[in-house]
Records
---
Amino acid sequence: MAEILRGAPVADAISEKLSERCAALERRGVRPTLAIVRVGERPDDVAYERAALRRCERVGVAARLFTLPADAGRGELLRAIDEINGDGSVHGCLMFRPLPGHLDEAEARGALRPEKDVDGMTASSLAGVFTGSGEGFAPCTAQSVMELLHYYGIDPAGRRAAVIGRSLVIGRPVAMLLQAENATVTMCHTRTRELPELCRGAEILVAAAGCAGMVDAGFVNPRQVVIDVGVNAAPEGGLCGDVKFGEVEPLVRAIAPVPGGVGSVTTAVLCAHVVEAAERRAP
């Protein structure tokens, strides 16, 4: 049976340290503050927002909500971002994506000041990830994959890793983060030829294609660590990942499930980025 890489203890360990750092900032007169921008009422956005607010309250991060209707215009959204940019008490911003189709997401991301981007949205943050400069912040989900590996003592150095997915939110940045820790990374996607064979040769497999159950027994090997990042609606209701958990779990060394794996860590990473942004600017 595989070791189950659950996210809750990882998030708890991060949160414990964050509480201490927030208390230290409070003594210096600084309250780390996150602005959350949400357009519309997508159920997954609302659920994540609730989880983020609970995590913020737990560790001592303040949160401000900028909630706009689904039909909000370009001007409304840009005014909200401009208010966040101009508020010195706000240290970081989370903007839910994708935005409704009538809004220009690239314009909205580009309008946010890079120093307030705590979720790897802006070109400056992504450049920091891709160049390894240490500037900006990686997307929270991509960073959560690394936090999960670190917590469970899985060192990427020298290992072969395969990443299924090439989005700027998860696939590409997590490949860069793995490379930064000296893994040898193969980037794959749904159109990769001989995909199962490529994945079987990896010691770390990150499934982030957004295709429910695409990773089955033919993708894995007994020495493999599988990190499932996919979040999909299950046919029977609820959520499922990109990995057929029941089929794959008996065949691999370790596996992060959906739900209960990487997703459980993201709010803690988000808060960690806000706290670090506040520390960078603290007097």
---
Amino acid sequence: MRGETRLLARILVAGLMNVGVYALLAVGFSLIFGAARIINLCHTGFYMIGAYSMFLLVVSRGWPVLWAIFATLVVVAVLGIAVYKLIIDPLREHEATVLIVTLATAVLIQEVLLILFGGHFRGMPSLIPGYTTVLGVRVTYQYLLTLGVVAVASLGLWAMLQRTRLGIAIRATAQDREVANLMGMDVTRVATVTMAIGVALAGVAGIMVAPIYVLEPHMWQPPLVTILAVVVLGGLGSIKGSFVGAVILAFAEVLVVFLVPQGAFLKAALALGLMLAILLIRPEGLFGVAFEGER
């Protein structure tokens, strides 16, 4: 009985950790899709930039953690705006081209990091060292910090979308870009700001996992597959759907890893399988709506 309780606790802890990371990435991805109507395949590239930036500033340069976090978020947001204005926006009418150039941008980020840091595995100390014990399972304070940051970021995003003029503009643009433009909203500016917010959320995820995961220049690839599955499961452009999809897929992965022999090798297959199943059964996802052209 004690062993079963400990296994359940380990599944719960690992699942919540994955939920936090997937939710931050998926919400940012969905936010960008909703306002700008683009599928940004370099989204997890910004997550990787956030992780490597923290490593560079804290470990290599010795910056205080708070200053490093602030600088990392600024860098990620500025790079996100630059990518949108210089690469994505001029091509936004050509959806297939946007997919290709955003994927190419992610590969470019990977190659730049390979040049700067090499292909070696790297790690950094916890932002908050130490651990506590929950049902016989060690839970590091870094895990708890990650969950707390996810909760604060989620509440802050909800408040911004519901209570501010920018949030109203983002929601209006997501619902109908043409009508929002006719109502006097600068939809291009809204999309640019949304891009900055979305990639900043990816940067927050990178900051939080930098002390937990191994850093290497290909770390953007596995979460990209997972995030695509999460947003398809929840519904493209749906913030609520992104959270629900993150919970479902995160715990499904953890159960496979803990309960299936060699389950760690099946995570990507599980994500892709769920994505294909949802596309076949309900193409718009659990909480998504039909695309504008299909209404």
---
Amino acid sequence: MKKNNVSILVLFVLCPCFGCAAEPFYEAELLFPPEAWHNHGSSLVECPDGNLLACWFHGSGERRADDVLIQGARKAKNSKHWTERFVMADTPGYPDCNPVLYVDPQGKLWFFWITVLANLWETSLLKYRISTDFQQSAGPPQWDWQDVLHITPVNFYEDLKDEWEVFKKRYPNLIPKPDKPFSDLKADEFTDYYMRNKAEDKLQQRLGWMTRIHPLWLPSGKLVLPLYTDAFSISLMAITADGENTWQTSRPLVGFGNIQPSLVRKKDGTLVAFMRENGPRDRIRISFSRDEGLTWGPVGETEFPNPGSSVEAIVLANGNWLLMYNDTTEGRHSLNLSLSNDEGQTWKWHRHLEKVEPGQGSFSYPSLIQSRDGLIHATYSHHLPGDQKSIKHAQFNEAWIRMGDPPR
């Protein structure tokens, strides 16, 4: 081994946070010029060749129009610019939303999304595609497989019924219903109608499950796909152990407000789900699984504020955890990064990607990855006043996060 290689190896061994020794780095750009069209809910992956592939949903608004489709764009490793946009999925006459991309250890690209059947989230149909030919310089992947991902919840009514009694006692005046997080209905009225007529109904249990965050690949070879439903404001995992053919579902994560889970794995094998809060707690929700996602402990609360907006957490190559979230209880005008070097016990470093006065911008729904060169990449919805909507990409390193926010 050459002397200079030995020096590099020694430096790496002595400093497990090798990337932290680098100079702080940050760079960002919009994927396309701002426009009045609604662009939201992006997902980002690094392809095996080092290029980036991103997608998001685009249209007039999925709750009122059927022109919503999923667009994509690419960025070559050494390029400063993204390609022209292209269509990733478009079901004629229906909104397509909430795309999720993932490249597995075998080099296959997974693409999950929902088709909204009746302009209500609880009518969403979950779909997925797989590609082994997706590293084109421009345009969409070539798809090898497409199917509907059928969700069959386990012990659904029983778990919801038990947790509902706890929720009623703690928040007697705040009762969820499907078209908005909370309403003025009395608890008994809601329970009689909803829990008996909806939670026990097979169709209501099986329809409306949605994607939002990257899945997690486990050392055992299982792929765990985090899902949630606005119909009940809870989460659930879809798990495959054979690479697409057979899926099973976890027991539900019931907290009545905990949605859009993001998964990380601790060194001891415990899975941790960080979730958006869609209810009264105003805090990021959390739950733990010690059996690879099949069952979950109680849904608790973290220290981090949440205004009802998506979060994502990842484990970096050096073992540190990174969390990206809106650090407010109202509004999405502040988008923050928090870094932990002890698997989430403490979060010692924080830095904002975006921060403006309320009403001056909305920055939300992050997609977070680390590329093989050690850089951290994020895409997120970038909405400015005057209907100026785009998707933004930022790349940075750990050293930049550790510097903290510059003086204002």
---
Amino acid sequence: MKPLLSTKHITFKISRFLLLALVFSYIICLENVWSTSENEKLKVEIDAILQKHKPKGTSVGISIFSVSRNKSLYESNSNKPFVVASNMKLFTTATALVYLGEDFEYETEIYYSGDISEDGELDGDIIIKGSGDPNISGRFFDDNVTAVPAHWADMIKERGIQVVNGDIIADDSIFDREFVHSSWPKDQLSKWYCAPVGGISFNDNCVDIMVRPNSNPGGSVLVEIKPETSYVKVINRCRTTTSKSKHSYSIYRKPFTNLISIKGNYWSKSQSSKEWITINNPPLYMATVFKEILEGKNIRIMGKARVIDETDIYSIQENNILATITSSLRQSITVSNKNSQGFYAEQILKTLGATINSEGSFSGGLNVIKDFLTKLGIPEDQYQLDDGSGLSKKNKFTPDTITTLLNYMYSHENAGIFVESLPISGTDGTLKNRLKKEPYKSRVMAKTGYVYGARTLSGYVKTLDEEIIAFSILVNEIKGGTWKAKRLQDIICRFLVTYN
């Protein structure tokens, strides 16, 4: 019987198979060589940039990772922990998107206790039930600082209430009352970036102070505060001067009080200026301003403005709700990242704690972030957590940890919200004035960061070949100004945009 295949045919088929295997092996080998050559070229280029532009005496950590190809491109001190400053907001906002979801909303409710008589007398209290919402301000209302509480007051008036025999009460119980983090710089607590955190917050927990020169030389400067409120007291010791060289003034709030001092000299030909000064006790601030607005609309308040305590027992029912306002997590994350608004990041952090762990505190929120990092496979020795904004210098991460987060978030279902919340080079946010020229404009989407001694930048680069690269460039131990650190970061970003 004749065989189906001759020895000659079998040999030919085996030879063809071996040839194909050799071709594939050769192609893979070429790809590996090309990849190694490519990485080596990139390493040589970035090492040269570091050699020339690394600020003297600083410590620099870099991780560069191709999201498009899922491979590391460059590392330098990438497993060393660095102070990350506002790059901490990347972790806070990413955790919020993953654990709370894009549809999460804050809801603040205004309701009353007791009964309303036919002639409009409320025999009870009006309560503001806080949700940790950071958006009760003029930010989304054409800079009308009191737009939201004024709307509440109008709703109360429409309900026919003319007299309130009780109090105006701020229920801030969703959060604890550690308004200020213990690691924040004690000499900067008046500054807007050190704004306290509250279960009820208003106007970023600041007052807006406008200063302009007096038309009479030697006279006190003219001061306007928004909102107009008795909650703060301003002591004005700042004088108008005709000497430009003497133009120097300061605004300072005495710790644990709402006593604000303005001192120094203000040049007579200078334009008006505006500063945001923090307040003490956010929920009481909201209750006080709301009471004043109600009174301004001829609603008599017989009681006082105060915060809720353990003796107060109230329940919200549908028929005793006077007004509500909602805002989205999405807009909160955008303000946090685009503007590097620490107040928003800390409100989001405590919201995480309150919603996921029923613990509206710094530690409660940080425990949620820690859980997220564990799920990402990041070991605890790669990071140190202390607050949600990065104002604390105790927050530390390795560059690799940051690019691991960035790589994960780029493929997450809420990637669009996360990436769009980041400042865009030459376009908006804290990168508006960096990398403004083509072809770099709009190709870097990254979070900036600064605390004394540290300048950080982490985010994404879209190359001219449309490759997506995640990067983290952390500069620590800076002595003096940080412009050289920024220059280093920008030079590397420019290189990555044109890299191919």
